[in-house]
Amino acid sequence: MTARSLAFLGLGVMGHPMAGHLAAAGHRVTVYNRTPAKAAQWVARHGGRSAATPAAAAADADLVLMCVGNDDDVRAVAAGPDGALAGMRPGAILVDHTTASATVAREIHAAAAARGVGFLDAPVSGGQAGAENGTLTIMVGGEPAVFAAAEATLGHYARAVTLMGGPGSGQLTKMVNQICIAGLVQALAEGLNFANRAGLDALRVLDVIGKGAAQSWQMDNRGRTMVADQYDFGFAVDWMRKDLGICLAEARANGAALPVTALVDQFYARVQGQGGGRWDTSSLLRALQEPGRG
Q1: How would CATH label the architecture of 172-289?
Q2: pLDDT of residue 291
Q3: Architecture of domain 5-165
Q4: Mean pLDDT within 168-197
Q5: CATH 3.40.50.720 residue ranges in the chain?
Q6: Mean pLDDT value of segment 54-73
Q7: Which of 38, 174, 211, 242 is catalytic?
Q8: The CA-based dihedral angle spanning residues 181, 184, 186, 190, taken in that order and rounded to the nearest 10 degrees
């Protein structure tokens, strides 16, 4: 692949390794992070250069990629006075990997189009491990021609990159992903709590039912750590509650019923009350084991 001039904005637990894959593939990468020290650390490890603002990082880039926290962060980093769009040239493409609302995706798409810039909302699934191993799943919203121009670059840190429809479709698909995960994790937590209270060997239970219809990614990757009461890793409860809030708001707008999702969101609130905001999302088991807390 021909080397491209790229910018990556946001070097958190996801963005840092994602940007690293781009540098390892031979692209010229300029990074920006709200905390400059993190950008300096990335440059020391991967090369390239850092910039003081999103606009400066994006100025010479063919493709600008970003992964930040929430809707307000997306608006500031993409469309603020020193945001990426202020520095991007017509014909360049902005890709947002943040899990955010479909509303903000459509806002940034319109702002980008007004400047002659392409835009894709492209949230990811696969967690920190997927980012580090380059095996993320990316669900994308935007125009087909813009997607075609960015797809190969996104493939450096993904095992699947799929265009789901027009602007906002990537974010809507990520909402479906989070809705499904919430129900699966709660069911797994309830099953393991039941196994423990019934006096069963929970690890043996997982081994048996994991070979049948109950098998899931959550069971394979989180079941044993749940039994071991280990939650200091992975996708944090605080982040999941942010995502579920987006899902519930969209459901209120489109009329979809999400009774289980709403209930699981409250269980996550209980985990937060137990001090587990930064615990892995599989910590729902704690809410069942310690029902009087939180």
Answers
A1: Orthogonal Bundle (1.10)
A2: 77
A3: 3-Layer(aba) Sandwich (3.40)
A4: 98
A5: 5-165
A6: 98
A7: 174
A8: -170
